[in-house]
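Private note to self, pasted from the team thread so I don't lose it. Backbone tokens:
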């Protein structure tokens, strides 16, 4: 059974709090697992959330500030300790190669797993699998930062009424799907395009072209909202977004489900982020991320 959901491991900005761990997000995409921005404490959060090292097929780091990457050392060593049987790919800004090297080899351990490094050099695709294309786009932060986007290939949805109209039923339906044509009837004539799902992950950044490109038409957008709107100047100075800015991006991009996260410890009431997002005009599904929350992707 395919599962597509976001498992939130941590939601704090800069420093953890009593209720929020450093960042960490696992995207379950059918049989694949993509771990984004493993901050300090990610291993323990994985345990609490029921996430195993075997669930990780790909690691994506947006940038090398500690709250987004200090957990790499532990996660990589855990993958090797548990002898994960499949290869794991790691993506990160190429300019941060020295930081990745230090974290990967922070202490002594026995390497048992094939970990392939695929640094991000520029905007565009990074990997193409049967289930999705992974791409990265540059963001605007004091250190080089990239956001990530998964795009599922478009498929086709069979329409029962049109199949019946052409007298196609039983095993012939499968034959038509495999061969594309049956007794002069093409697959296009009895189906419609089913747009592939799109997932976007945007962390530390000011408003920039990359934010809009990543968010465009996303079924789920996970995006930082470090500050509330009254602190917009602080947000701009430090390379971050406010709740209202993030929500306006989502509204303009036609996002179906918006997940706000990466909250400054200066704020105590998560409801303030929801109020400002709604005030900015976003009317779709909205989640204010909490540690250990599971958020299913919208149904296709």
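Design output:
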């Amino acid at each position: 059974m395919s599962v597509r959901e976001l498992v939130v491991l941590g939601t704090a900005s800069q420093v953890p709090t009593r209720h929020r761990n450093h960042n960490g997000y696992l995207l379950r995409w059918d049989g694949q697992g993509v771990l984004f921005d493993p901050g300090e404490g990610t291993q323990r959060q994985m345990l609490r959330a029921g996430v195993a090292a075997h669930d990780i097929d790909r690691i994506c780091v947006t940038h090398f500030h500690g709250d987004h990457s200090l957990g790499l050392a532990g996660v990589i060593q855990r993958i090797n300790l548990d002898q994960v049987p499949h290869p794991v790919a790691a993506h990160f800004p190429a300019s941060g190669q020295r930081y990745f090297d230090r974290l990967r080899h922070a202490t002594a351990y026995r390497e048992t797993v094939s970990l392939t490094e695929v640094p991000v050099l520029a905007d565009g695709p990074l990997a193409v699998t049967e289930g999705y294309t992974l791409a990265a786009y540059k963001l605007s932060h004091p250190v080089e930062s990239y956001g990530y986007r998964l795009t599922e290939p478009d498929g086709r949805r069979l329409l029962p009424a049109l199949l019946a109209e052409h007298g196609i039923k039983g095993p012939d339906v499968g034959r038509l799907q495999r061969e594309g044509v049956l007794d002069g009837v093409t697959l296009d004539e009895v189906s419609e395009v089913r747009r592939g799902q799109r997932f976007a992950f945007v962390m530390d950044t000011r408003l920039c072209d990359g934010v809009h490109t990543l968010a465009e038409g996303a079924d789920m957008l996970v995006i930082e909202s470090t500050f509330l709107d009254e602190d917009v100047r602080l947000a701009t100075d430090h390379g971050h977004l406010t709740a209202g800015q993030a929500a306006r991006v989502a509204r303009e991009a036609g996002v179906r489900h918006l997940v706000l996260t990466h909250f400054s410890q200066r704020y105590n009431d998560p409801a303030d982020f929801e109020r400002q997002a709604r005030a900015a005009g976003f009317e779709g599904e909205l989640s204010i991320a909490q540690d250990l929350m599971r958020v299913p992707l919208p149904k296709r």
